[in-house]
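The pair is quoted verbatim below.
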Amino acid sequence: MTERPDTDDYHRLFLDDVPLLDVRAPVEFEKGAFPTASNQPLMVDEERRRVGIRYKEHGQESAIELGHQLVRDDIKAERVAAWVRFAKEHPEGYLYCFRGGLRSQISQQWLAEAGIQYPRIKGGYKALRRFLLDWLDAHIGDLDLVVVSGRTGTGKTRLVHDLPNAVDLEGIANHRGSSFGRTLTPQPSQIDFENGVIIALLKAEQNGGPIYLEDESHLIGRCALPEALRYRMAQARLWILEVSLDDRIDNILADYVTDMSKGFIARDGEDAGWHNFREYLLGSLQRIRKRLGGDRYTELDAIMREALGQQARDGSLGLHRTWIEQLLKDYYDPMYDYQLSRKENPVARRGDYSSLLEGALTAQPVN
């Protein structure tokens, strides 16, 4: 492997999706990392905790000594072997710890002793994170954003997926942005979400042309939009996707009933999967009970339970259309109309999927 120098070219690391070897402890990685990072720790959580206590009580030299006692022999060999595998699979990558200091230097040294010269990132995780936050603050005002809005069920996410130079906020958050919006896998940490969003914006800016995002509230599930982005989106021009009520019902039926029931059953098995899907649907309605009001909630809950019973008996989905239609007309549509009336964004374009997609394609720069 050709020796490469350590780097502080954070911009290129993110633009090029360079593989990153994160040697921090798992608890640090879970709190926040980057999309291309793989966690192969120098010390696991308990080892890091004990070394940290030793550092506070007896200083750095004693802490380093304890670290070498804890990570030695077979444990050391196993961790170095994992780093070697990563380095051979990703010869273009870099390694980092929290500040680019002792842990990454030790990891480099042990890799070198195993015959692998592998560069580290100067400043480590802290410098990478700081770069992203500073980049957002410096560039957010200059980004040419277009916010794709529309009533619930219009298929905004599908359109965003097909638009050129789009940033899929819901995809990064792993949540569809409503009380029914959770997916079958967990959401990222808040820091992971922020990192993913900023990296996506950085890449989109590099591409040139408008950047398309779906209209979102402050929270997508439990992930909060970066405040600077939220403020900028509130100023950006709006494109409003318009779709018939029947098509919106079809979209919601497909996303939240057909696909979710299949997904739960594929993940959890027939019986447990059906039970968990049922609890997901009823629980999602329960979360907006106060906003619906007691009488409306009771009515919709009864319809949903009847629809679920019919689906369980013979697989038919017709009754689901009833609660979906009522929920759209009586709850989501009035809420959307009120929110739209309060927006200060200029409405630049309205239309169906085809017309908005065509408008986006003609707005892209020619390379």
Notes: Strands lie at 20-22, 37-39, 94-96, 145-149, 166-167, 211-214, 219-220, 223-224, 237-241, 347-351. The chain has a mean pLDDT of 93.
